[in-house]
Design a protein that fits this description.
- This protein has two domains: 38 residues, no CATH class; 136 residues, glycosyl hydrolase (family 31) (Immunoglobulin-like, Sandwich), CATH 2.60.40.
- The chain has no helices and 15 strands.
- Strands 1, 2, 3, 4, 5, 6, 7, 8, 10, 13 and 14 form an eleven-stranded antiparallel sheet that branches. The chain has a four-stranded antiparallel sheet with strand order 9-11-12-15, with no helix packed on it.
């Protein structure tokens, strides 16, 4: 017996959390707002259907979790390995992180639709010692840290994907309707393990 989403009755409320924050439960989700006159006051929004988590600061969207509904779980069986995947929107086009690589400090987008000279394969995170590693490759090296930082003129945001399994990271340009200009879509896919994420942002 299942329960349809429309059958759930959610109680709405609003209450103070400490002296600086307001937590509001709405029918569409949760909102945690910083109660301050600061221009960089932050807000966290959790939306139920479709599932989203958004981090706002100073009225700007910094990060959106599951921005293109790419949350995916595949249960492991004897024939199929377990895998998990989810995508994120970062309001920045300059991306850095996911070491170690033999490539430029700034990460390249992994799709080849915008620029055919860019790599077309996802970055692979898996510790290995490989002889004659080609320059500019998305292949892994000695270490694998699933952390990406996005830097824009007025904000910085980052994502830590806590998973030690072999992981593939896709990056491509993405325009979010809630922001001005373009940002980036970051997708993590791991061949097993659990989904644990940390999201950071500031303007």
């Amino acid at each position: 017996m299942g329960v349809e989403w429309g059958q759930l009755q959610l109680q709405t409320f609003s209450e103070s959390v400490g002296s600086d924050y307001q937590l509001t439960m709405e029918t569409s989700g949760l909102v945690l707002t910083q109660q301050t006159a600061s221009p960089d006051a932050f807000e966290i929004k959790v939306q139920y259907d479709p599932f989203r988590i958004q981090q706002w600061s100073g009225g700007q969207l910094l990060v959106e979790v599951n921005s293109q509904d790419t949350l995916f779980f595949e249960s492991g069986t004897e024939q199929i390995d377990q895998s998990i995947s989810m995508g994120f929107f970062i309001n920045a086009q300059n991306l850095y992180g996911i070491p170690a690589r033999a490539a430029t400090f700034r990460l390249n987008y992994t799709n080849n639709e915008t620029d055919p000279s860019q790599p077309s394969n996802p970055y692979r995170l898996w510790n290995q010692d490989m002889f004659n590693h080609p320059w500019g490759s998305t292949w892994p090296l000695y270490g694998a840290i699933p952390y990406i930082l996005g830097q824009a003129a007025s904000q910085t945001a980052s994502i830590a994907w806590i998973n030690s399994a072999e992981t593939f990271v896709d990056l491509f340009p993405y325009v979010n309707s809630q922001t001005v200009g373009s940002g980036s879509h970051v997708s993590f896919t791991s061949e097993g393990g659990f989904m644990e994420i940390f999201v950071f942002g500031s303007n």
